[in-house]
Amino acid sequence: MTLDRTGEPVDDTDEADLRLVVSHDPRCRRGWLGEDPDGHPIPCLTCRPHLRRQEP
Fold first, then answer.
1. DSSP letters along 3-49, please?
2. Which of 1, 18, 25, 29 has the fewest CB atoms within 10 Å of its CB?
């Protein structure tokens, strides 16, 4: 049995959760994918969708 972020039990066979696990970048460490050549952190947009670049 798996628990969600609030501690509630979650069905382990939920297809949406399986897609999220499969599509998640394996380089992700606590929401970050490392650094670009200039030393700026690269966010994992799966973990940190609020950091996605917005169109003006």
1. E-TTS-EE-TT-HHHHHHHHHS-TT-BTTEEEE-TTS-EEE-TTT-G
2. 1
Alpha carbon separation from 49 to 24, 39, 43, 52 (Å, rounded): 12, 21, 9, 6
For the segment 8-52, what is each residue's pLDDT rounded down to a tens digit? 887 766 555 555 555 788 899 999 999 999 999 999 999 999 998
pTM over 0.90: no
Distance CA 22, CA 17 (A): 9
